[in-house]
Amino acid sequence: MIPAPFAYVAPDSIDEVLELLAQHGDEAAVLAGGHSLIPQLRLRQRRPGLVIDLRRVAGLDAVERTNDGVRIGPRVTVAQLARHDAVRESAPLVRAAAPHVADPLVRGRSTLVGALAEADPASDWVAVALALNAQLVLRSSGGERQLDIQAFLNAGAGEARTARRSDELVTAVTLPRSTAIGYARTTHPASGWPLAAVGVSVEVDDAGVVSSARIGVSGAFTTPQRASAAEERLVGSRLDAATVREAGGMATEDATFAGDADDLHGPPAHRRRILPTVLGRAVARISSH
């Protein structure tokens, strides 16, 4: 299908981008990798009046080490993240999930920041971000603010998928350092889209006991969630077979999702049925890096 008509601009600076967002608001769409936006344009699921391409803006394609993790710019592709030393050292969960995202062509164009800004409830990266407590930096012409991923997802705020305002650009995502992680997903056999994806990040003490745990779930529900009951089951336990089994069984115990995910990829009942198995696999795959 041919997209609806729109204006196109490729600014040279971040200030120009922010000025355009302030002027055009919801009528503007930002293009980074384009993995989500371009298909939406072709299918006329989105009809922006203006597309703002970030390809000429300097400094948005950087991966930087921070004191407690790594900072990722909005033009950094999944393929770049998968082979970057700073990501391997500080955010191994990103490296674990990256090979599962679509195919090499898509990974060469799609971006983690763009996927989080889009916040599709079935995205692999939303589960990863929840498990890592990702922090998103949002900037407008009026200033800058930082939100953790749960606040950014803005669950229950009407039809808004995220807390991003129309005049804001997500300029970076910071991921705190993690070591012990696990990832698992199951997909629709034709589309490859996740029916359930689970990211796990834990801290394990010298005695092999889990001292803290974060589990992010996407795909299974309309709103991505943390599996709090399963997290609580892991804390204070060793990662033996019984713990893995019980944590998996708690996958849907405390879901506070806003309805079930019902689309062409799979009915809600099926997603709920498979989630405990996927969560158990992610926990069973926890390894230290």
Question: What's this entry about, in short?
Answer:
Helix content is 32%, strand content 25%.
Structure description:
The protein is built from twelve helices and 13 strands. A hairpin with a 5-residue loop joins strand 10 and strand 11. The model has no long low-confidence stretch (mean pLDDT 91). Helix 10 packs antiparallel against helix 11 and helix 11 runs antiparallel to helix 12. A five-stranded antiparallel β-sheet has the order 4-5-8-6-7. With 289 residues, the protein is an alpha+beta fold. The termini are far apart. The radius of gyration is 19 Å and the shape is globular. The longest helix has 17 residues.
Number of helices: 12
Distance between the termini: 45 Å
Mean pLDDT: 91
What is the β-strand count? 13
Regions with pLDDT < 50 over 5+ consecutive residues?
none
Sheet bearing the most strands, described?
5 strands, antiparallel
Identify the overall geometry.
globular
Rg, Cα atoms, Å: 19 Å
Strand order of the largest sheet: 4-5-8-6-7
SS-based structural class? alpha+beta
Proportion of residues in helical segments: 25-40%
Protein traits:
289 residues; alpha+beta; 5-stranded antiparallel sheet; 12 helices; 13 strands; 32% helix
